[in-house]
Amino acid sequence: MTDQRHFQNPPPSADVIVAHGLRRTYGSGKNAFEAVKGVDLRVGEGEVFALLGTNGAGKTSTLDLLEGLAAPTGGGVEVFGLDPRRDRAQVRAQVGIMLQSGGLPAELTVTETLEMWRGTCSDPTTVDAVLTLVDLGGRAGVRVGALSGGERRRVDLACALLGQPRLLFLDEPTTGLDPESRRDTWRLLADLKAAGVTIVLTTHYLDEAEALADRIAIMHGGAVARTGTLREIVDGHPARIVFDHPGLPLPHLPGASVDAGARVTVSTHDLQGHLLTLLGWARDHDVRLGGLEARAASLEAVFLDIADESAPAATPEPIGATR
């Protein structure tokens, strides 16, 4: 069993992370590119916060600023009430970071790698404990270079957990994992959250954010486009009813937006009421609504709509802004 000294439910406290007006610009003059444009974020003690983003949205640059790996061009960030760069020694002792690509030495065994990493931690647990947590006990003597991509991701996670952190930054933690390993990782993160660990994660898997996150921020074009709980984000988004056009004038659907092409798309905040109206109308007119689909609002729908919004297209982040 892992040492639980840090993995205990702490008393309620102020936000763990506070970012205000956060900006990050690369280059200068005509070549300047602003990747992060005045981002405000708060992450509470013991919550899982998912930072999502469309391509080139500034998500990785924002994460670098929160982790203290880069200095903001404007605004500021506090972690545990401290500056993550100026007070790096104090902050780093309480933080675990799992990067998109760990870059661990391929020639070392898993145990040797973790022992090396353990030496950088101020209050580490044991190598055996984290190997058990990430289900790699049977691969302890294998060289990192001989592991599968999913196994290397689990070694990266083990490194992040060695210091028994109060705050975990996880950048795409389940990329490359098979479905069973993904679910195992979800269970581990849920256990860490239950023990009071605060987790900030980025992921391209929207079902992962839905399953794990207490709150979500979706970035687009360097800014936060939506933020809140899953319910808060989804509730403000219309549901959709889609079916083949029956060739007759459609019934009036108050408050709905109707795109009546060959396939009819009804965008509505009253899914049940408008679906009942359509089904009743189809029954009364003895027509079949071919290919009928009723879709409640979802995180995926919100995310895709944000990506399609008419805001200026995001420019890919420059080299050095991504990992």
Summarize the structure.
By secondary structure, this protein is of the alpha/beta class. It is 30% helix and 24% strand.
In words, what does this structure look like?
It is a single chain. With 323 residues, this protein is α/β, with parallel strands linked by helices. It has helices spanning 59-67, 88-92, 110-118, 127-133, 149-161, 179-194, 206-212, 230-235, 271-284, 299-308, and strands spanning 17-26, 33-43, 48-53, 74-79, 95-98, 167-171, 198-202, 215-220, 223-228, 239-244, 257-260, 263-268, 293-295. It has 10 helices and 13 strands. The strands form 3 sheets. The chain has a 6-stranded mixed β-sheet, with helices on both faces. A hairpin with a 2-residue loop joins strand 11 (257-260) and strand 12 (263-268). Helix 4 packs across helix 5. The protein starts with 16 loop residues before the first strand and ends in a 15-residue tail after the last helix. Mean pLDDT is 89; it is low at 1-12 and 310-323.
Query: What integer is the average pLDDT?
Result: 89
Look at the helices and sheets and give the structural class.
alpha/beta
Strand arrangement within the widest β-sheet reads 5-6-7-3-8-9
Identify the CATH architecture of the domain at 47-57 and 87-234. 3-Layer(aba) Sandwich
Oligomer: single chain
Distance between the termini: 33 Å
Q: What portion of the residues fall into strands of 2 or more residues?
A: 15-25%
What is the general shape?
A: elongated
In the predicted model, the low-confidence regions spanning at least 5 consecutive residues are: 1-12, 310-323
Task: Please give the share of residues in helix.
Answer: 25-40%
Number of helices: 10
Per CATH, the superfamily of the domain at 47-57 and 87-234 is P-loop containing nucleotide triphosphate hydrolases
Instruction: Give the CATH class of the domain at 47-57 and 87-234.
Output: Alpha Beta
Question: Element order, helices and strands?
Answer: EEEHEHEHHHEHEHEEHEEEHEH
Task: Specify Rg, calculated over alpha carbons.
Answer: 23 Å
* CATH topology tier name of the domain at 47-57 and 87-234: Rossmann fold
Largest sheet: 6 strands, mixed
Give the tally of β-strands. Answer: 13
